[in-house]
Design a protein that fits this description.
This protein is an alpha+beta fold. Helices cover about 20% and strands about 35% of the residues.
Length: about 150
Amino acid sequence: MAIIKNKHISFSLVLLCLIVVSPMAMAQLPNFLNLPLVTGLLSCTVNGAPLNGTSTTPAFANAIVQLQCGSQNTVVSQTTTNVAGIFTLSTGALSIPALLSGCRVVVPTPRASCNATLPSVGQLISPLMAVGSLVSGILNIVPLVPSGFIPTL
């Protein structure tokens, strides 16, 4: 086997191999470059939405928020809203299509815990929807938000 003594030729061969293999590698990249991010804002109202879009609606602070998936409503992720009513749920290894078709955001915390005049039973449930994407280098962050909470009894 001949040893290539010229460093420029060696470098050129390595570079040529990388160029040839690069399109194949990009085509085979897994879906983890699309990072779904489930986030939302919960207000202290009957349906969890701000009243008439006003900013004076109180936040639903310290509410448990769950990401439930599948026909068994398996809790995949859980968090608590902050003092402003904002939550972010991790999505693990779930793909965006799986999240949009088989998952929902559930608030099991009774609404009466933020306002005694609201119902003390039932949950808030919402399917998810994508609201665009944010590109950060090779990472594509896809924000998923509740499409509208529906109160249950």
